[in-house]
Amino acid sequence: MPATRQDADEHTRPRATTHRVAVVAFAGISPFHLAVPSAVLASGGGVAPHTGYEVAVCAERPGRVPTSAGYDIVVGHGLELLTEARTVVLPSWDTHRDPPPALVEAVRAAHGRGARVVGLCLGAYVVAASGIADGRTLATHWHAADDLARRYPAVRVRSDILWSDLGDVVTSAGVAAALDTCLHVVRTDLGVTMADSVARALVLAPHRDGAQTQFIPAPVSRRPARTRSTGPSSGRSTTSTIRSTSTRGPSRCISHDARSPAGSGTGPGSAPAGGSCSSAWHVRACCSRPPT
After folding, report:
1. Percent of the chain whose pLDDT exceeds 70
2. Whose CB has fewer CB within 10 Å in the chain, the N or C terminal residue?
3. Strand residues in the chain grouped as ranges (E)
4. What's the pLDDT score for residue 42?
5. Cα–Cα distance between 119 and 170 in angstroms, integer?
6. φ, ψ of residue 123 in degrees (nearest 5)
7. Which structural domains are found in the chain, ordered by start?
């Protein structure tokens, strides 16, 4: 049987090379935080695409590791896993204790030989402790930002963005933002098409701007009330007040309003290191629509 065009395409298509990822667990870790890197980076199976990442979990002390959910997990690798990893993920940290010297040194050594270090949520504490981000900007959960800045004054801490990508160091805000950050890593390494496929499999938004604010305070209407008729068609009518629930009106987009100049906390301007929205349709639909 002659070869088909599909056969030729499969033969010539470049195959993904293995990208080893080491995820560091610790006593008391949240199972959700630990699961995020594997869920996004190594999501192959079912409808999810095979990304080429090889994700493994390690700990300073391999064996049974207690979690915050009341059950233990078994970790088979020690910190030697970091010596072979192209990406090291610190999915969180226990802020009541300092990162142990062995972990700090392992992260520093991995970064020194060229590995990318990703600190998700409170994992930024380990990044800061290692010294690899001194004089640079880190993102973390808004609730921990002041404490992180106080304990590690050599780093600049931002609590108003979802993630920050410095190339060799990536950090993020908390909880759900870790999903966005890992998806950003896929997009950076493997392109938009692969990232969109992973997002679709996880039923996850394909892109949330890194410059998007971490949370929105309770909105208060600043627009004048308008009325609509709620009465029957007999000619009698009553009115009810309709007020916007957005402080900026429905024509504004949180992702774009949250942009600020690099190095500053808030205010309009260009996108910081966290990234920016590049979707023209999004700009037209959300940011250029006249108020109604």
Report:
1. 64
2. N
3. 19-25, 53-59, 63-66, 72-75, 87-90, 116-119, 137-139, 156-158, 163-165, 169-172, 226-229, 239-242
4. 86
5. 6
6. -60, -15
7. 16-202 (3.40.50.880), 215-292 (no CATH)
Other CB atoms within 10 A of residue 120 CB: 32
Q: Are 140 and 152 in contact (CB under 8 A)?
A: no
CA angle (186 as vertex; 62, 65 as ends), nearest 5: 15
pLDDT digits (tens, 9 = 90+) for 36-95: 999 999 865 667 788 999 999 999 999 999 999 999 999 999 999 999 999 999 999 999
Q: What is the pTM of this model?
A: 0.68
At 278-290, the pLDDT tens digits run 333 333 333 344 4
Which residues make beta-bridge pairs with 75? 63
The pair of structure tokens assigned to 210 is 């890194």
- How many CA atoms are closer than 13 Å to the CA of 41, on its beta-carbon side? 29
Q: What is the pLDDT of residues 146-155, one digit of tens each?
A: 999 999 999 9
Nearest by Cα to 95 from 179, 28, 173, 33: 28
Collapsed DSSP state (helix, strand, coil) of residue 98: coil
